Structures are given as C-alpha cells and as structure tokens.
Amino acid sequence: MSLLLIKNGLIVDTEWTRHSDILVDGAKIVRIAPHIDESKLPLGSNVIHADGLCVLPGIIDAHTHYHLVSRGTVTADSFEEGSKLAAYGGVTTVVDFADDNKSSLLDSLSARRKEMSPMAIDYALHQGVYSYREGIEDELAELKAAGCGTLKIFTTYRDVGYLVEKREELKAIFSAAHELGLMVTIHCEDDKLIEEIGRSWKGGYAPIDHASLRPSEVEAAAIRYVGGIAEEIGMSIYVVHLSSKAGLEAVRELRARGVTVNVETTPHYLFLDKSRLEGPDGPLYVMTPPLRTKEDNEALQEALLEGEIQVVATDHCSFTREQKLSSDDCRTIYPGIPGTEELLPLINTFAHTSGKLSLSQVVNLLSTSPAKLFGLYPEKGVLREGSDADIVLFHPEWSWTLSADTLHSAAGYTAYEGFPVTGKVVMTYLRGRLIMGDGIYLGIKGDGKFIRVKR
Ligand code: URP
Ligand code: ZN
Ligand code: ZN
Q1: Among 150, 245, 349, 357, which is 20 to 30 Å from 304 by CA?
Q2: Which CATH architecture has domain 58-373?
Q3: 324 in ligand 1 pocket by Cβ < 6 Å?
Q4: How many CB atoms are located within 10 Å of the residue 384 CB?
C-alpha cells in the first residue's frame, strides 16, 4: 500500500495538542513530526493538507447494539448501516454485545463475531453472562483466550432471562472475572424494586409512565448492590449508561469506600429529559433506563466536567419511527434510540459551550479512555507511531444542525432533531484507508476487523 501523509493539522489526542504531520504506511502510523517532507515520499503517495483542521484518533463508541434481534424484531441499523453512520460520525471502532446462549460463552461470542462480519469498521465485543452454571470459570477462560475482555451483566430483565438472580451466583461470576482480569460491565436497575413498583402502580402505561415505573432509585439501588459485591471481592466495575443523579450519588458513596467504579453515560442522559416522553412522539424517546429530569441532566453534566465520568458512549439501539410508534404502551414500545453519529458533535458542542472541557478531554472520553478500559489501547485510542491509523479530520468550529435529513441512521429520525452543534467530521480513516470523505461514504463491507483485546 502507498504512503499517506497528513500535513499541517492540529493533532489533538489525550496527551498533547500540537501542529504536526502524520505519516501512515499501510494500516499504521509510522511517523509524527513537525515537518515531514512530501518531496521525499515515493511516487503515488497520498498527501492530505489538513490546515485549519484538528486531527483526532478514531472515536470509539463503547456501547452499541447494531443488528440486535430482540422482542420479535430487529433493530433498524444493520452492521453495514451501523458502520456507515459511524464513519460519518468519526467512529472507527464500536464495542457491541454478544448474547449468552447459556451453554457456551465461546460459542456465543463466535456466533456474534460471525454475524458481525459485514462490518466496515473495527469492532470488539462485550459478552453477556445471563446465568451461573457449572464450569462457568472455564467458559470465561475460553472467552478471554478468544479475545474478549469484558462481560455484560444485567440486574434486570428477568422476564427475558437476562437476570442472574442469586447474589452468591453473581458474586461467583464477578470473582471468576476478576481472577481472569476480565472487566465486568453492568446495566444497573434493580429488578425486584421495579416489580414492586409495578405491582402497586395505579397509573397508566403511556411513554411518560415509563419514567415512573423505572425511577432513578431503582438505578441507585442496583449500583449499591453490584458495588457491594465488587467491594467484597476487591475488584473494579464499569456501570453502563448512568442516567441519574441518584445513581451518581450511589457511585460517589462506593468511591468514598474505596471501590473503583468506572462510569459511562450517554448523550441522551446528558441532554434530553423526560418531557420528551409526552405527546404523540413520546415512544420515539423510550429507552431503558428512561430519560430523567433536567436536574439529572445537570448533575451528569457537572460530573462530566468534574472528571467523575470515564466514558461517553451511545447505547445506539435504533428502531424506525414505524417500529417505535407501533405501540404507545411503554411495556411494549421497542426500547432504544440511535446515537453513534451524533456522539462527537454533541460532546464537542457541550465542551465548547461549557468552556470547561478541552477537545483533548473530549478525545479522552470518546476514544482514549474506552480504549484503555476495554484493552484496545494503544492500537486504538491514540495517535502514536505504531498505532492503527484510525484518524479523524475534524472541523472544530463548523456550526450545523442535527437532523434526520442529514444523518444516516436507518431509523429515519434523530432524538436531537434541530439541535445546533459545533464541530463536523470531514474525513474518517480506518487503518489508513479513507472510509468517509467530504460527505461521501467509502467504507467496504467486511473490511472491519474483530479486535482481540489485550489484558
Ligand atoms: O433501551 C435500551 N437501552 N436498549 C438497549 C439495551 C440496553 O439495555 O442497553
Ligand atoms: Zn442497558
Ligand atoms: Zn445497551
């Protein structure tokens, strides 16, 4: 493959920001220097002038559900569509999920890997563990050997068979994961409390009622529960999609007791509140956990600025308007919204308007930190000689408006319709190959690689 030279961009990664040239040979960054002479490159080398643009490491969306088959349907964005919208958003790697078939974690992982082979961007996997069974320790060891470094645990969804009910069984899974150096990520909502609330509920089941049926105390209770188990074992945990101030308080309590709790939140819990659930379009905004209050948004924003949140990912789980609006009962509305493509512009805009977060810190939240936590670093998450040439050319000042008309999810809507944003992805390179340039998608089906994590 010929060489690629990106000249005069402002390189922004978590460690430093400076004007430099980047030389790429094949899939890897081979040199970063203030001036690399293009006249010395072999004929046929590609030179990109990035004056006025920021050069970022590829964004990592650490929480996606592309082509999720669930509740008798499938999500709107296939692996090809997910790859495409990701490329438009500067996302070069996603961490998606493999369901547990409850007999072999290795087979579960392999099946999802096979399904994901049409991906045009890179991907890693979190492996769901939905039951404790004899020999699970061996299954986990096999999983690790196969390149998966993270487990996904649910403290809810008993109805669909995701919940490990007994504390001692959950503790055994946590312990085995800890022994093997696997990260445990958890969807935190306390199932028993949800059932109790549901039993005494006198209201209806409109989209807005979803917020009352799964309130923030339910999240806080589950965080305390799994945090208590982690504390007994002496291990760290990762809380996915933190949605509430009450949940944040629970995280703070655990941290004060010395428990390492890594926290992920999403743009929807930062910028959208439950008033969206009112009215005829309410179903479009149903996801689990539900949207909360403005006060919750502000508490999470403050926590982001204070460094209490380690990762912003999206929980991209898209359904078409038709799928979403096919029910107005919050118990049956398909839960989830699209988000990967909106991630970088939304967080960059927040950084800009708050004036308290640098682009470098944005890069950390959306790339370096997930790469480190999920064992993808330094192949991913950093612009460094030897790293994968996953490179985003980003115009940091470009003002535009988020709209389904200009975004690429097959959902056909965005939860952020009409949001003014600052910052636009101009070019996205995956391992040295241009996959999106000037609004044109150039990704290749099947070109995405499964990234085996290093732990
Ligand atoms: O409603 C959501 N978030 N759907 C995706 C699955 C999950 O719980 O993360
Ligand atoms: Zn979840
Ligand atoms: Zn999810």
Answers
A1: 150
A2: Alpha-Beta Barrel (3.20)
A3: no
A4: 15
